[in-house]
Amino acid sequence: MAQYDLPLEQLRQYLPERKEEPDFDDFWRETISESLGRFEPPVFEEVDSGLKLLKTYDVTFSGYMGQKIKAWFIVPKDLKDELPCVVEFVGYGGGRGFPHDWLLYVCANFVHLVMDTRSQGSSWLKGDTPDYEPSHGPQYPGFMTRGILDPRTYYYRRVFTDAVMAVQSVAFLPGVDAKRIAVAGTSQGGGIALATAALAQGVKGLICDVPFLCHFERAVKLVDSMPYAEISSYCKVHPEQTETVFKTLSYFDGVNFAVRAKCPALFSVALMDDICPPSTIFAAYNYYAGPKRIEVYPFAGHEGGGSYHTRLKIQFLQEIFSLREV
Length: 326
Known about the structure:
- By secondary structure, this protein is of the alpha/beta class.
- It has helices at residues 8-11, 24-36, 104-107, 155-170, 188-199, 216-222, 228-237, 242-250, 254-258, 278-287, 306-320; strands spanning 43-47, 54-62, 68-76, 83-89, 111-115, 176-186, 203-209, 265-270, 292-297.
């Protein structure tokens, strides 16, 4: 895949018009408040994962409207002091998988919560959490158009709220320094993390790798790859609903969350990414309200910076949590 989007110098200046409904903040305030009203401390049980140097816990926490969401919580075996926590969200189609899929952050001496994504987890990593909610009308196969004719029924209302409640829940888990919590994710996980950084209280850092769920209107016109093509395919069959579709999506657009998120952030973008177009990522990054930096990978696709970038993520977390001098 060749570079196909705007030149890098234009990407760095790209600030498209934001389309935001006047009740955006009220919508999310009421959504989160309703779920906080049904919050219960998480239930966690140590499990034998075969990882003898770590402790792994099977966690069930209260997500959207108190619905039960699964997660893995992984800590060093000989944990004595409270440690910073990374709350991580998974890419599209994946679930929480197995504990051995998530060794990076605990090996860097952080405690680590990995949230299962409701109803996903059958495309690659397995999942264990149902959606609980009815489908709310016709949809294109996948998750992008589930309940899309109303923001109150849209699938990602529940997912983003689950993510906020995951941050709320980690303070009740053993070994967590509740004053040092970061959110992280790649692709869909990056989009969820960006929304969570804007919506959750007490988030101290954001790792947002090649994020999905940003600048929807440009994305669906620029690429015909999945998952964005789920939206364009739906609108092809239902052209009379196109305006309603994009009105709903405006409540879930990473660009609109970016202007509200203020914690330090590390973004990444790949200029040959035909899943999440570079301009959609730069739109969110350029609007981001907090301290930020972005790593650009000119010859990478949706895999982003790979192992090279992993090193930078660890350094970023060490810096924001003041674990070493910078």
